[in-house]
Amino acid sequence: MDVQRRDFVLAGTLAAAAVATSAASAQTAPASAGPGETRGSSVLPGDEKVQYTGGTEVKRLKIVNTAELEVEAEKILPKGGYGYIFGGSGAEYTKRENLRAMVAIGLEPHFLGGVLKPDLSVTILGSKLPFPIIIPPMGSHGLAHVSKEIGTAQAAEATGALMVLSMQSNVSLEDVAAAHPGPKWMQLYFPADRGYAREVIMRAKAAGYSAIVPTIDSTLAYPRDNNIRNNFRIPASLGKGNAPKNEPDPVKAAAIMSRRKVDLNWDDMVWVKEQTGLPVVVKGVMSPATARQAVERGIDAVWVSNHGGRALDGVPASVSVLPRIADAVNGRVPIVFDSGIRRGQDVFRALALGADVVACGRPVLYGLALGGHLGAQSVLEYLRDDLYIVMQLAGTANVKAITRDYISPPRTV
Ligand SMILES: Cc1cc2nc3c(=O)[nH]c(=O)nc-3n(C[C@H](O)[C@H](O)[C@H](O)COP(=O)(O)O)c2cc1C
Q1: Regarding beta strands 212-214 and 357-359, do their DSSP bridges make them parallel or antiparallel, or are they unpaired?
Q2: Nearest to 29 by CA among 41, 38, 19
Q3: What's the CA gap between 143 and 156, in Å, rounded?
Q4: 278-297: buried (b, 16+ CB within 10 Å) or exposed (e) per residue?
Q5: Which CATH architecture has domain 55-230+256-406?
Q6: Which of 143, 262, 276, 382 sits between 20 and 30 A of 63, alpha carbons compared?
Q7: Contacts for 10 with CB less than 8 Å, ≥ 6 apart
Q8: Nearest 10 degrees: Cα torsion 226, 232, 233, 236
Q9: Taking the chain, what is the end-to-end CA distance rounded to the nearest angstrom?
Q10: What is the pLDDT of residue 15?
Q11: Which atom of ligand 1 is the closest one to the Cα of 137?
């Protein structure tokens, strides 16, 4: 069956039924929160028959820039899958802002500093990384390539990059860990079922993930035009890598997975820390107030992100709020940044405005789509090498040296 042709209205009704079925097994499930609970990752009866094939080639990519990768990926991916990766929520104002605001930030180089070879290495929460660019959590890499998250994990392993695995991965977190013994964190969409939440974070700890990353900006799904237009849900046949172990029925298991704790709060974040003893990185911080509270509640790092413009549309570019958040945090915990990183300059901009490490999302998936693990690796190497050149040209010997002194004041003419 072609996933593009499914009846969307019918899909919504069946999804509601599937969600209702799961309520019985949810230990802390509140009453339905209403609109926004059905997601692209929801599974309905019959979905397992929907077939999908992402990219199949495995090759190094000659990268001119990441915008062109997007164009190439569109040519080879099924329409629904490409739309899912490419799209933002609502009117896509925030998605556009991420790119617009980023390029508007001018760099101010300091020449004649005698920098020969910039040192790109950085340490975050105990992980020493060769360069400050990490892979953010993204669900269902099978939409991009048949190697799924294994391809991305191999690219991370080859480059030494830290990979953050989405809880919505097609491959199990254990299999990803086997493919990437190097640094990795586990993302959590906090489930309504607390028993399942505990299962996932404890599995991650046992498999060697060294931090848990609860995403706080997606308690409900803000509609995405592409998915509605294409009647698209992630094909269940791609696999649900982290399904609850004690639920053999795949539809019920998927319903438990997709039903999130809507009334998420700080106690839930602290609970993750208490259960695992691992550092907790709160992803989706978009205000100084949230960042301050995170530090006060003992959270180990804040991740400034608007989800690449895929959560609440209408918020500013992540980079626009970064300086105020960095001021609020004042060096007390590390800051991760994402949304709109496309070049070495963007990494440099975010580091200068207060980030400790920076994540790049869609371009990694486009690289995976076009060239499997070698394609994703090519993207990471492109960003790394671009950053190297920018750092040398700007006159920064190491990552710590990249400060606001290297950002031009806003233009007055
Ligand atoms: C296809 C796709 C799936 C995503 N899935 C998740 C997810 O499962 N969990 C999450 O916290 N963020 C998810 N994100 C958001 C990314 O972690 C990251 O915030 C975003 O991609 C950064 O923006 P960029 O794509 O402009 O670099 C996803 C993003 C994309 C493009």
Answers
A1: unpaired
A2: 19
A3: 18
A4: bbbbbbbbbebebbbbbbee
A5: Alpha-Beta Barrel (3.20)
A6: 143
A7: none
A8: -140
A9: 57
A10: 39
A11: 17
Please state whether beta strands 127-129 and 122-124 pair in parallel, antiparallel, or not at all (unpaired). Answer: antiparallel
CA distances from 386 to 201, 378, 381 (A): 35, 12, 8
CA 361–ligand 1 middle distance (angstroms): 6
Residue 10 has pLDDT above 60, yes or no: no
**Residue 170 corresponds to which tokens in the numbers above?**
């097609």
Q: Whole-prediction pTM value?
A: 0.91
Which residue, among 260, 311, 262, 255, has the nearest Cα to 15 in the 3D structure? 255
DSSP 28: T
Phi, psi of 121 (to 5 degrees): -70, 155
Residue 42: per-residue pLDDT: 65
**CB of 121 closer than 8 Å to CB of 129:** yes
Residue 341 CB less than 6 A away from ligand 1: yes
Cβ 240 under 6 angstroms from ligand 1: no
Question: 401 C-alpha to center of ligand 1: Å?
Answer: 29
> Measuring from atom 19 of ligand 1, which residue has the nearest CA?
307
170 CB near ligand 1 (under 6 Å):
no
Contact 361 CB / ligand 1 (< 6 Å): yes
Q: How confident is the model at residue 252 (pLDDT cuts 50, 70, 90)?
A: confident
Please tell me the distance between residue 282's alpha carbon and the centre of ligand 1 in angstroms: 14
Alpha carbons within 13 A on the beta-carbon side of 379? 32
Which residue CA neighbors atom 29 of ligand 1 most closely?
A: 138
Distance CA 199, CA 247 (A): 12
CA distance 230 to 373: 28
Instruction: Give catalytic residue positions.
Output: 307
CB 310 within 8 A of CB 327: no
* Residue 116: pLDDT band with limits 50, 70, 90: very high
The Cα–Cα gap between 404 and 413 comes to: 21
pLDDT band at 20 (very low <50, low <70, confident <90, very high): very low
Q: Is 214 in the pocket of ligand 1 (CB under 6 A)?
A: no
Angstrom distance (rounded) from CA 285 to CA 315: 11
* Residue 75: other Cβ atoms inside 10 A: 9
